Amino acid sequence: MTKAERTRAFIIEKTAPIFNKKGFAGTSLNDITAATGLTKGSIYGNFANKDEVALAVFDYNFERANAGISQQIAGQKDAESKLLVYVSAYTDFFNTQCEQGGCPVLNTAVEADDTHPKLRKKAAAAVLAWKNKIVAIINDGIANKEFRSEVNASQMALTMIAMIEGAIMISKLLNDKNHIADVMQSMKKMIIELS
User: Fold this and answer.
1) Residue 163 has pLDDT above 70, yes or no
2) pLDDT digits (tens, 9 = 90+) for 106-159
3) What is d(CA 100, CA 173) in angstroms, rounded to the nearest whole number?
4) Of the candidates 6, 9, 5, 29, which has an alpha carbon nearest to the alpha carbon of residue 19?
5) Which CATH architecture has domain 78-193?
6) What is the spatial distance between Cα 92 and Cα 184, in angstroms, rounded to a whole number?
């Protein structure tokens, strides 16, 4: 990595939790300089504006949130076990991710929906990628006769994502991890019933 690439990576890493907690509108240039210890000139020497930082940070936050789950899924042999990774990962989500501001997809989707088209586009692409990943697992399960042939993979994937994001929102709003655990148990039952 060049010095400029290292500096950009440093800015992204140090500001990622701030953007995820405060959102785009709530994160100021002063927040960015305080987190990095860099001057405004250094920030703008590496990014054209706050928008560019926010877009890079979203990618970073999404990749971080996705990496652990992807690794766990890769270690599973059958489709049901792969889907159940989401249950176990998100049951513990409240304890592991809420200090970092919660789910970057949920946070960005809610904030950017009507205010920031570029961030909205990033969040939408993340949801579609997530949906496609789940659809592929379900379709593999159908092809391997693990799941019933009439299972609607797209509908199931969207339902799982809605359950996960809704559970995160409710648990975070009410500051109660039991809500996400309850919803994940319902999702586990739904996954098991695909057979």
Assistant:
1) yes
2) 888 888 877 889 999 999 999 999 999 999 999 999 999 999 999 999 999 999
3) 15
4) 29
5) Orthogonal Bundle (1.10)
6) 10
The model's pLDDT over 42-75, given as tens digits with 9 standing for 90+, comes to 999 999 999 999 999 999 988 988 888 999 999 9
Strand residue runs (E) in 22-98: none
Sign of CA pseudo-dihedral 180, 186, 188, 194? negative
**Angle (nearest 5°) at CA 119 between 162 and 69:** 45
Distance, in Å, from the CA atom of 101 to the CA atom of 98, rounded to the nearest integer, reads: 5
The greatest distance separating any two alpha carbons of the chain, rounded to the nearest whole angstrom, comes to 59
Q: Are 96 and 81 in contact (CB under 8 A)?
A: no
> Which fold is adopted by the domain 3-60?
Arc Repressor Mutant, subunit A (1.10.10)
Sequence-separated (6 or more) residues with CB below 8 Å from residue 189: none
Q: What residues does each domain of the chain span?
A: 3-60, 78-193
CA 31 from chain centre, in angstroms, equals 23
Tokens coding 25: 């509108």
